[in-house]
Amino acid sequence: MLTVYFRFYGSLNDFLPEALRHRLIAQKLREHAAVKHPIEALGAPHPEVEAIWVNRRPVDFTYRLQDGDCVEVYPWEAIHALSDYMPLRPPVPQPARFIVDAHLGQLAAYLRMFGFDTLYRNDFNDCELAQISAQEHRILLTRDRGLLKRRIVVFGYCVRDVEPRRQLVSVLQRYRLGGCVHPWQRCTHCNGLLRPVEKRAVLDRLEPKTKLYYDEFQQCETCGQLYWQGSHFERMASFVETVMQQL
């Protein structure tokens, strides 16, 4: 058996039992275990880990532990302070695309509102979510830590906040997407792209007051949903501005 010491930094402590947070953790391990397994066994899903140092040197998830090793595990927000680190995965593909689990439907709608390609269905099972994330190089957003620990998941984030607007801000901050926001380009219902449509082409679908007061419309090219800058638009635009100020 080996004795190995672990220390988790920053937001990775969210995944640990309270008694183990912000302290050195001694673990008894079988010989030659790869570092990835005990990190996840202690609670941190591998997509949340951005850098690993062993004995003050950067390593990747395949590093085989030795007796007495001191393992430091860093989240995304801490790597700027490291003198060196070994990337644990490829860069997030750009533009960033997401797949969202069934419990985050409002977050999915907000991401679409902000212009991000976001898959969401309330009947996706965990296997489908993981497979689609891996096959399409989408960032998996979930509150399920076990789902993020699936081996095939490369890009993923555990959403800690409960309130959807705070969830949105945390995701945009995590992936530094402030400069990638393009509101009003996607359908919040189905994720399809919006295209301008002539008023006369949709006149039969409009309510009398909408016909009277509005002339510019967009339509989802996938589901046909109509959008216009109605009485609700000012409130939505204010929401977008408030979020952008936090990025």
TrEMBL record:
InterPro entries found in the cross-reference section: Mopterin_synth/thiamin_S_b, Mut7-C_RNAse_dom, Ub_Mut7C
Domain Ubiquitin Mut7-C: from-to ranges: 1-77
Pfam families: Mut7-C (PF01927), Ub-Mut7C (PF14451)
Domain Mut7-C RNAse, residue spans: 97-239
Name under which the protein is recorded: Twitching motility protein PilT
